[in-house]
Amino acid sequence: MKTLYRLQAIVTKELTQLKRDRMTFGMVIMIPLIQLMLFGFAINTNIRDIPVGVVDQSQTALSRVLIQTVTATQVVEFTEHFYDVEAAHAGIARGEVRAVMVIPKDVSQRLVRHKTVGLGTPPSSDEETSRPVAQWIVDGSDTMIAAAIKGLRAMPLTELLGLPANRITPTFEVALFYNPEQRTVVNIVPGLVGVILTMTMIMFTSAAIVRERERGNLEMLITTPIRSIELMLGKIIPYMLIGIVQVAIILGLGYSVFNVPINGSLLQLAGATLLFIMASLTLGLVISTIAKSQLQSMQMTVFVLLPSILLSGFMFPYEGMPIAAQYIAEALPATHFMRLIRGVVLRDVEIIDMTYDVTWLAIFTIIGLIVASLRFKKNLG
């Protein structure tokens, strides 16, 4: 009986402490709630409105009808018009579009020939019936995007020509760039760099200031002439070296074990990676200035990690998310780094051609350092 009383006392004490710790109590509710909302609404494998471009070499009414027919499937959305195929290749490499439809000059003749053959006119050669009426140039590094585009090869054209299913129907030719074999590991390994760096870098620095407080070192730091910004920079520089080692391990093993190519410049890769490491470390510092204990800092880190992994485009295509989820994803450093590292490693893009993502990470890092420094200075007061 005494054991039950003692046990009741301990349980009451723990519940009271949990009630007073609003941060922990809030995380108990928010983490499963956010995870449910992310998987229920934001994560969608049925991709719609993929941003694509078009090279219309025909400039006819039929080519415009063809574009409208493909758009009606709601799988793709034409956001760019390119003058030639070279410009289209550059647009795909920079990540402006995920695919480009190239409509040839003789698209009318190709469609008419397919229609007459389908209605019973014998073909003059096998080439006439197998010749595609247009071509898709696709960024094959994302296998889910590539599979969605490949699903458009015949369906819209059959409806356009009004042919029965058992007739000879025209198709699109699909050319897959950067990952023609459609190996999932090619897309996963560069993305894994962003996920691991997000987990480790934020985790390292999220407890940095809290750890100093719990160990009693904060009072000693107050008496030193060190400035807040100097302390913040001193906290992140050692972990930058750790991040570089992690990137070398992941990409090195990816290349040697899984044959994942590194098509871009190592210097470009180093620049993008260092920028992301600094952004992640400063985010961890901001968390560390908010949290009152290391337990709280770990809980807040998990709170950031879940959307960073699920919404950054690592597991599910960014285009498949609703608009609200895309806005949240744009606020996360991991989203911008996913674009940068996949662009550099897989598509050999220079980071200067991806100025939006580079600028965003730079601004995030500067603002994060300023906020962390001001909050730390405020805590000293």
Automatic annotation (TrEMBL):
Alphabetical UniProt keywords: Cell membrane, Membrane, Transmembrane, Transmembrane helix, Transport
Gene Ontology terms: cellular component: ATP-binding cassette (ABC) transporter complex
Ranges annotated as spanning the membrane: 23-43, 188-210, 236-257, 269-288, 300-318, 358-376
Cell membrane found in the keyword field: yes
The ABC transmembrane type-2 domain, residue ranges: 150-379
Cited PROSITE patterns: ABC_TM2 (PS51012)
GO molecular function, one term: ABC-type transporter activity
Lipid bilayer topology: Multi-pass membrane protein
Taxonomic superkingdom: Bacteria
Major location category of this protein: membrane
Subcellular location: Cell inner membrane; Cell membrane
Family indicated by similarity: Belongs to the ABC-2 integral membrane protein family.
The protein's name: Transport permease protein
Organism: Shewanella pneumatophori
Highest classification ranks of the organism: Bacteria, Pseudomonadati, Pseudomonadota, Gammaproteobacteria, Alteromonadales
